[in-house]
C-alpha cells in the first residue's frame, strides 16, 4: 500500500481510524491543550473546551474578563491576545454547536440549546445536590469532561 500523499487522504485515514476505534464526534469535543487556557481559565473552574461555544460568545467573554460572571478574571494584555487568538481558531468546533451557531443566552454553555436538549431528562433537583452544585460542574457527572469526553455511556450522576 502506498502512503497517503495529500492532506485530505491523511485526514480521511485519521477519521477512519477514529471511527474504527469507536470514537464518536457526538460524544467528544476537540480538546487541544493550550497552556494559557489551562492556567488562566482552569485556575478558577474547569477549562471549558472552546468547541462548546461559538466564537462570538468567546469574544464577548474574553472582552469582559473584569466582570466575568461576577468575578474579576483579568489577565495581562499578552495573555489576553493569545487567548483571543486561540479561542477564535478553536471555537464552535463541537458538532452540536456548529449545527446551532447562535450564541446561547448570556453566553452560558448551560443555557445553550444543545446543552438543554442533552440534559432535559434530568430533574431540576439534580443540579443542587451537594455533589454536583450546578449545571456548570461538568466533571461531577462526566469524568472525561476536562479532556472533552462527554459520552452518554460514561455518565455517572452522583447522588
Integer count of domains: 1
**Strand residues, percent:** under 5%
Note poorly predicted spans.
7-26
Structural class: mainly alpha
Cα radius of gyration in angstroms? 17 Å
Ends apart, CA distance between termini: 53 Å
Biggest β-sheet, characterized? none
Mean pLDDT: 82
Write the H/E string, N to C: HHHHHH
What proportion of the residues is helical, as a percent range?
25-40%
Tell me the number of strands: 0
Shape: globular
How many DSSP H or I helices? 6
Task: Describe what you observe in this structure.
With 159 residues, the chain is mainly α. It has one domain. It contains 6 helices and no strands. Helix 3 packs antiparallel against helix 4. The longest helix has 14 residues. The protein is globular, with a radius of gyration of 17 Å. The relative contact order is 0.14.
Short structural description:
The chain has helices at 7-20, 35-40, 55-63, 77-90, 95-99, 113-118. With 159 residues, the protein is mainly alpha-helical. Helix 3 packs antiparallel against helix 4.
Amino acid at each position: 500500500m502506498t502512503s497517503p500523499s495529500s492532506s485530505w487522504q491523511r485526514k480521511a485515514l485519521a477519521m477512519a481510524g477514529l471511527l474504527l476505534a469507536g470514537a464518536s464526534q457526538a460524544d467528544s469535543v476537540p480538546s487541544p491543550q493550550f497552556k494559557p487556557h489551562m492556567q488562566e481559565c482552569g485556575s478558577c473552574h474547569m477549562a471549558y473546551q472552546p468547541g462548546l461555544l461559538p466564537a462570538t460568545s468567546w469574544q464577548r467573554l474574553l472582552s469582559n474578563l473584569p466582570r466575568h460572571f461576577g468575578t474579576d478574571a483579568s489577565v495581562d494584555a499578552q495573555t489576553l491576545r493569545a487567548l483571543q487568538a486561540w479561542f477564535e481558531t478553536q471555537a464552535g468546533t463541537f458538532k452540536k454547536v456548529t449545527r446551532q451557531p447562535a450564541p446561547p443566552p448570556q453566553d452560558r454553555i448551560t443555557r445553550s440549546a444543545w446543552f438543554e436538549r442533552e440534559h432535559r431528562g434530568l430533574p431540576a433537583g439534580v443540579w443542587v445536590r451537594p455533589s454536583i452544585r450546578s449545571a456548570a460542574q461538568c466533571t461531577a457527572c462526566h469524568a472525561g469532561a476536562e479532556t472533552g469526553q462527554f459520552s452518554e455511556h460514561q455518565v455517572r450522576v452522583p447522588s
